[in-house]
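LAB NOTEBOOK - FOLDING QUEUE
OPERATOR: T.R.
BATCH SIZE: 2
PURPOSE: Compare the predicted structure-token outputs for two unrelated chains run back to back under identical settings.
PRIORITY: normal
REVIEWER: second-year student, initials M.K.

ITEM 1
FIELD SEQUENCE / FIELD STRUCTURE:
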Amino acid sequence: MIYDVVVIGGGPSGLMAAISAAEMGSRTLLVEKGNKLGNKLAISGGGRCNVTNRLPQDELIKHIPGNGKFLYGPLSVFDNYDIIDFFENLGVALKEEDHGRMFPVSNSAKSVVNTLLNKLKELNVTIRIDTPVENITYDEKYHTVNLKSLEKIKTRSLVIAVGGKSVPHTGSTGDGYAWAKKAGHTITELYPTEVALTSEEDFIKNKALQGLSLRDVALSVLNENDKPIITHQMDMIFTHFGISGPAVLRCSQYAVKELMKGQTKVKMHLDARPDLSEEELLQEMTNLLDANPRKTVKNTLKGLVPERYLIFILERTAISDELKCGNLRKDALQNILYDIKHFKFFVNGSLSIEKAFVTGGGVATKEITPKTMGSKLTERLYFCGEILDIHGYTGGYNITSAFVTGRLAGTNAAYSAY
């Protein structure tokens, strides 16, 4: 049998591509090397499945720092609001949470995956799981998918939707890069994004802050001239190897890129009270100290930042636990203020790309037609999802990119098959 469209990869973009191709009336095959479809969807959003984000388009693209502007073309055809309609038309009721994140009302990723699987069945898409692909042969008339079992599958159009190299237990192990290269495509340098950062600072090594969460801090990555490259105001946590949490994940790609330039370490800047200017914080501290001359500095200031963090700062400034407010020198007060607002430390790396949430790099977007997701180099070949050099922050942005590019790849693969 010769298929009209073969989609390789059963993640978010592959499922969307297969449904979209079959809706056009194409005889469609979905091939997945793992033993089930939708693995990445099932764990997304902490198992609740953050299906998209309903921010306006310009805001949405700001949250996709890795070639997000490429998505203006695809989003003009099928956008995040269309994703919402797509799921609601399939009977998946959605609700909006903070920062525009859209979740199923059921709070269950399984309900999203099952709905997509039911749609595939309804459209008579042939599904083959436990079916690893060895390589692909491209030809003028048909492309051939060569399986590891030595079976050959012929198709008029091909969609490669196999993901990047992150979260390999879901099946994303970088298989598709070699197939893209064989079709003439450039693979830009791969690197981890949305990843925890490592540090060899003494306070990390001696676990002084391990397990400490800081809420709503401003974390910045500094360049070699001590100027901020990026700042994110969110929560973070100190770990046994370095730093993690939402602010760190969002800053991570900028730190990783500085390290890729050959720097051995990158300076971070932490403001634990971004809600107050230095003058306001100084005034608040002074008022507290003046009102409590006989109380200890530690007990008086502990409401300003978490107590463990305050103790760490006081130790750095060589202030004893017993020092009374009335005896605190002005220069010591300035040092405490400075550390709360301007704590600087170095990171020297990140966890591996396999432990990252998202892969940076991939198939070069300049070689892809934005409104079809078709290869500019090989006819009837389409790419979608994380194999492309597109990446966003967590919060429904990567999955939006996957669904949007999957929709276009599947629809246009079906068009070109005839």
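ITEM 2
FIELD SEQUENCE / FIELD STRUCTURE:
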Amino acid sequence: MKILHLSDTHFGKSVNGFSMIEEQSYVNDLIFELVRKENPDVILISGDVYDRTNPPVEAVKLFDDMMTEFHKMNKKVVMISGNHDSAERLSQYSEIIEADGIYNRTVFDGAPEKIVLADEFGEVNFYALPFFRISDVNRVYDQDFDDYTDAFSYLVDKMNIDTSKRNILLCHQFVAGSTLSESETSVGGVDFIAKEAFEVFDYVALGHIHRAQSFNDGRVRYCGTLLKYASNEAGHTKSITFLSIGDKKTGEKYCDIDINTVDVKPLHDMQKRVGTFGDLMNADTDENGIVTEDYVFVTLLDDNYVEDAIGSLRKLYPRIMNVEYDFRSKTSNDNVNISSAADVKEKSPEEIFGELYAMTHRDSEMNEEQKKILSDVIKDIWRDDK
């Protein structure tokens, strides 16, 4: 059986004020092209279809287009909701679409029942577990769990899994040892589930974390987002995950699995640019006077703030997302003498401020104009204090 593993499409997402609808529509078309080429039997969508519980009309249309296209291609689809989704919105028409091979599990109401599909080697059991919190498990089963691994293991026990068959889980949770991006948050790691808790499954199709990564010899996998949604993802290569599962021989713990990824080339990439304002403004441009059409996060190394830097830079970088300054990287602190508490009493305010200036600027000394401004300000302050 050949499977396409997707998650975290986040339809309707905006990043730093830029709508990602055009980018997401472009990637949808890439997916459709790959599905026609690779011809998977089943498509898994592991949560966060939408970016928020009340998605815009354009986002709903993107998801409708995706489901319509998969239906036209006669593909089986198994999907769950994530923490960003509205479970009720995604669950609409579930009974109707299930008759057409789209299995939609969006509301957590306990351990999922298996969805049985088959290939030339026999049955494959899919367990579609929507995003849950410990409080959900405690409410449904009248328990008092305070640990995510314990709560998840309890649900697995309730599934009554036949390990002689091939078993695949869809899940939208944090796994211990995962690397998070800027767009994901975990409170002290208390919502992480131990990798060992997933060992009963032949494959776990994870959603929730945006960077592709895997555990347990590749059998527990985050496929990652298809687009970059945070500055610390600039430079990463996004991909689409396909896997082929073979027979499960008698006495073997797992079936054979072959994982293949296809790199995604977005309509517009995301990158970081570091340099002085002058360097960035003097960069090479194309025939339209544009340096790059990519989404850009800029770090300026200027000694002082540049007035409306982002407005000026946007003329050359139309998709500039943010400008920040990195003063601390501009000097080697090894050459800066910092006063001790005792020394402070023996130094003037100008000398103390000069040390602070040297810590945060490329040049170790202020120029004469800056020194005069500082001296005048200190005199005014001391005059007011008397």
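REVIEWER COMMENT (ITEM 2): The chain has a mean pLDDT of 88.
FOLLOW-UP: none requested
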